[in-house]
Structure formats: C-alpha cells, structure tokens
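Researcher: Let's do a round of design. I'm pasting the structure tokens now; please hold your answer until I've finished.
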C-alpha cells in the first residue's frame, strides 16, 4: 500500500496526470502573472521542452488554457476552438482555473458550457496545485 501512495505522489509531482509525454510540445494560452509557475515547470520537466505561447505557429501535442472568473465564457469557447486547431492527434487539452475560494475562481459549469459550445466534453476538475484545478477536455465521442 505504501508503494502505491509513493507512485501516485510521484505522478502528481511530475505532471504525468496531464497526459503529456517526453518530447511533447505544449502550448499555453491566456498566461498571466497569476499562473502557478510550478505547474509550468512540472510540464517542462516531464516533456523536456519549454512551453510555447499562443503565437506559436506550428502543430502542438497538448494545450493548457489558464482561465479565470470574469473572463467571457464565449471567449473561452473561442480560445478552445483556436487552441485545438493546432493540436495533433487529439492530444490533451486542459483548462486550468483557480480553485474555489481563490481570486479568479471560475465555476466548473462555465468551463463545461464553453467546452460544449466548442464541441468538447469537460471532465471532472482535478487538483493540479495548491491553488489551481484542471479540467481535461475531449472531443465528443473520444472516450473518457
């Protein structure tokens, strides 16, 4: 049992729950000064690549969108569509939002609604750091 706890802790510390792999190019959208840089570092350590911004003009293997309450839901849907345009082979797409009770905390129903508008399903939020939750998006009909 102790071994399983160590494995789960290691997976979380290495950002493996995002579904990214070594060599993946991950694009982040809506980055701002309030993001949790430790999440960025964990993804970069896992992939061995620097995160690229929304101006990156080549195909990417995964996407992270930083979302905060007060941002327009339609803008989130548009951002999801724009971000997935550059995505290779249905790679992982994540919306990261501040946890409830934190400044900028966004309702998961807002993210779910925007995802649906963009043609995606939104999973149950997952804690990805002390202050941020992540919601994985998948195209309709693409499994769990």
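Researcher: That's everything. Go ahead.
Model: Designed sequence:
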């Amino acid at each position: 049992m102790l071994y399983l706890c160590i494995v789960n802790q290691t997976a979380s510390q290495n950002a493996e729950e995002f579904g990214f792999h070594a060599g993946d190019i991950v694009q982040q959208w809506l980055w701002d000064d309030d993001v949790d840089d430790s999440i960025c570092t964990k993804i970069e350590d896992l992939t061995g690549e620097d995160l690229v911004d929304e101006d990156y003009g080549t195909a990417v293997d995964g996407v992270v969108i930083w979302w905060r309450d007060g941002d327009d839901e339609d803008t989130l849907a548009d951002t999801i569509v724009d971000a997935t345009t550059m995505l290779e082979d249905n790679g992982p797409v994540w919306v990261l939002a501040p946890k409830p009770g934190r400044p900028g905390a966004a309702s998961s129903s807002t993210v779910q609604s925007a995802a649906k508008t963009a043609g995606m399903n939104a999973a149950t939020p997952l804690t990805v750091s002390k202050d941020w939750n992540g919601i994985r998006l998948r195209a309709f009909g693409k499994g769990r």
